[in-house]
Amino acid sequence: MSENIFPILGALLVGLLVGYVIRRIAVGQRASSIEQKLKLQVEEAKQNAQAVLLEAKEKAAVFLDDAKKEEKERQQQLDKLADRLIKREELIEQQVRQVSSKEEHLEGELAKLAKLKTETEEKQSKLAGELERITGLSLEDAKKELFSKIEDEYKQELPSLVQKLEKERRDEIEKRSQEIITTAIQRYARTHVAEITTSVFHLPNEDLKGKIIGREGRNIRALERLTGVEIIVDEAPDSIVLSSFDPLRREIARMTLEKLIKDGRIQPAKIEEKVEESRQELTKRMQAIGEQAALEVGVVGLSKELLQLLGRLHFRTSYGQNVLVHSVEMAHISAMIAAELGANIEVAKKGALLHDIGKAISHEVEGTHVELGRKLLKKYSVEEPVIRAMESHHEDYPFSTPESYIVAAADVLSAARPGARRDTVESYIKRLEELEKIVNQFDGVRNSYALSAGREVRVFVVPEKIDDFRALQLAKDIAAKIQSEMKYPGEIKVNVIRELRAVEFAR
Length: 507
Prior knowledge:
Residues 323-416 form the HD domain. The chain is mainly alpha-helical. Helix content is 69%, strand content 8%. Helix 7 packs across helix 8 (304-312) and helix 7 (268-297) packs parallel to helix 9 (323-341). The chain starts with a helix and ends in a 10-residue tail after the last strand.
């Protein structure tokens, strides 16, 4: 048994040795193959590295060349800049030397002037002392006496000379103005409408005039007192004239006369009753007029009080233009402009319609119509954009929205078109009062009168305070103040009158 085992073990050992040898041979072959591959890869890597290194060297050479060129250009620029700085430094040094030379020259001149001034002052002092010794007057007294003699010598000559110069200048200005006016008249013409501050009331018969006047004029006095209208009788047959600058007062008087004639009883008590009825009816009528105006332009949402005030504008005029008609016209113009510009049409239209609402109460409450209008619109809860649109039409407030510009433009267009406006008695009287008020502010003016429809003002002065020469200066001062504070067409002649009366009694 044991003998059979040994051969088997020998065969196994031989098999194991043969397998080991075979495996070693295979491993050696694989290692050799791997080694060859690694050698090839290392060789390839060396070649790639050499190529990259060569490319890097080429790029570095290019960069180096570029850097050298830039450095060369920069060096050239620095050289140029250094040359310029050297030249500028040389120029500055030259200028400094020139300034130093001039300063030395000026110092020498100043020293000479100081010396001359000292010598002159010494001579003046000696001359003044000699003059005081000879004349017995001090230097100030001598100056006063000299000026007094010169003033007396030329006092009469200066006014005539000044008047002559003013006349020549005025003639030249008038000639030029005539040429301008003639040219303007040839190029443009417009219709002229007389000022209207009266209404004619036609009577059914002439006998009613006596009833309207009443016993000893009591009826007509009651009418005038209650309505504030002047009633002119016997100007024309079968009619009487109602005169007042306020159309609202004239309308109340006209309605009262209609009621009295229809009733037949004309007496103070009945007149007072009919005047009150007319006022109430006119209030309702103004409400209807305001509603119609708002409906015409398509403005909604206004309070009853605002509509009544709007209707009241129907009885207000501005330079002869009906204020309500002007406002309605502005609303249409504003709507068209806003539509073209892409602005808010409703805001522009409402702002234009209400822009003069303050004029409905301007005679009752102090303040400008713009400020009163703003307060009214805020009181009745009108939208803030509408208030901002209307408040700038006279530039009392800055323009803050596109609609404010539109309302201002529409105001100018409506007012400036030919025939839209004319001067009225209100503005006429106001202008005359303002003219006299300005003149009376000057010291030495006794009284003044505005004449020729405000084209001339005659000023009477106190002769003890104003002499002839001062009168000429006063006329100039008054004319300058009028020109700076008043707006008026044409020119205003300022006529200063000085009259001295010497009165004495022989006893």
